[in-house]
Design brief:
The protein is mostly helical. The chain folds into two domains: 68 residues, Arc Repressor Mutant, subunit A (Orthogonal Bundle), CATH 1.10.10; 84 residues, no CATH class. It contains nine helices and three strands, in the order αααααβαββααα. Strands 1, 2 and 3 form a three-stranded mixed β-sheet that branches. The relative contact order is 0.17.
């Protein structure tokens, strides 16, 4: 009996970005960084390997494949539609990583009652993403850039992709 293929889940993008910067450590460490269980982190790694975003039998990210997926597939596979206004943590073009690059009329946030801004919320790729600004600022930046790809227009997407390339040291 063959097993059903495992489709990527939104949290897998956060796992791939985390591993692209720091592939070391155990599933326990990976899960702790992302506020998920070690078994959830392990399942995510398996899905990423099956998708070709991680090299087989390792935690080494296929950076070019990941960047290609982020640039061309992310907004189709995990679309985000800004909803009603809530208090939250700024993301996409409202996040500090992009505020000097993009001027926008509205604010986009991940819902969080302790958040610093009020704006239209989108569902984050990672369930507890609102914890990242204090827990793991560099991963917060990467997920905010991913959100700019998910909801941005061509200019915002282009800027976000270039900034991800720089952070992940991907050439070309």
């Amino acid at each position: 009996m063959s097993r059903k293929p495992k489709a990527l889940k939104p949290q897998d993008i956060a796992v791939a970005l985390r591993l692209a910067v720091d592939p070391q450590g155990t599933y326990l460490h990976l899960g702790a960084d992302l506020s998920m269980s070690a078994s959830t982190a392990h399942e995510s790694v398996i899905r990423l390997q099956l998708a070709g975003l991680l090299r087989p039998e390792s935690h080494n990210v296929n950076r070019h494949a990941l960047l290609e997926f982020l640039e061309h597939g992310l907004r189709y596979m995990f679309p985000a539609k800004p909803e009603s206004k809530v208090r939250g943590v700024p993301t996409a073009y409202s996040a500090p990583v992009l505020t000097n690059e993009i001027v926008a009329d509205d604010v986009i946030v991940w819902a969080d009652p302790q958040g610093s801004m009020t704006g239209r919320w989108i569902a984050p790729l990672l369930e507890r993403a609102a914890e990242l600004p204090t827990k793991c600022p560099w991963l917060y930046e990467l997920l905010a850039l991913a959100d700019a790809i998910r909801i941005g227009r061509v200019r915002e997407r282009t800027i976000a992709v270039e900034m991800i390339k720089e952070r992940l040291a991907v050439s070309g």
